[in-house]
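Hi W.,

Here's what went into the run:
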Amino acid sequence: MSRRPLKRPGTGLDPGPLPGLIGYRLRLAQQTVFRDFAASVPGVSPGRIGMLLLVEANPGVTQSRLAQAVGRDRSTMVGVLDQLEAKRLVERRKGADRRTNGVWLTRAGRSLLARAKRAIADHEQRVAARLSAAERAKLLELLGRIGA
Amino acid sequence: MSRRPLKRPGTGLDPGPLPGLIGYRLRLAQQTVFRDFAASVPGVSPGRIGMLLLVEANPGVTQSRLAQAVGRDRSTMVGVLDQLEAKRLVERRKGADRRTNGVWLTRAGRSLLARAKRAIADHEQRVAARLSAAERAKLLELLGRIGA
DNA sequence: GCAAATTGTTTGAAGTCAAAACAATATGAG
DNA sequence: CTCATATTGTTTTGACTTCAAACAATTTGC
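Here's what came out:
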């Protein structure tokens, strides 16, 4: 919150103290990364692909545990799963505990995910293009120490 | 996109390949940081405080250049400035080019920003609590290389 | 002087999210 | 076993953020 860096060439605007804040840099980086991701995997947003990956790794997981895992409200998950179910990527099945729904990937979901994974691998390489392998690992580690 | 890390203790869910993706870690970190920021500076969102800092560093900047600086559409800026003007934190003044509005901080805006800056300094320390000064600098640098 | 570009604005739409209240179902204490 | 309590998924409502297209006012450039 003290020193004033150089103006940004693109806009000609003085960015003020913002570039010294971790939160600001996180937002810029995330914006860039998500934009590339969205272009790499059209039709399904980054967050939704994340959901599919979570379901793949935990077949039959309940909606509540899914919500808890991504830090969203239970009620939010309803609409999300409605979306994914409308696209035939997942399906809900009544559990032994009949209050719960187990969530499973459909065949189409698994197929889309397989395709997405290849696109994600390319995407990840583009994102880390300006980073050495060691730097990339360091970044992941530092982010992990920030993000709980 | 290959190895499968340990389950997260909190949820008991297998996170799958997500923790190996930079975008995922960015989202988690940003979520944590923004949550702390929002609690530190109540009433005005992180993005809005960013706007105020930008206006402070560039008094009289036009709406379009502001929009361009934060990567938003021109039309988006209208509502944002309406908000801030309704809270008497900024004001618009017709420019020499009478198509444009110059944006300026009000006295209340400067006062709120001064208070916010102290809160942000504390916030930044909490965010970087688990990082050495060198690690914090390294993180900012690596994020800069990701985020355009 | 006049066509073309720029600026701020309005309108309409989409996407994301949370909070509160509800029915169905399960759990646990007695 | 019974009945108060908790949990799960859902609906409804509302807030927030964003973009795109169309428009009038104004400026710029040929």
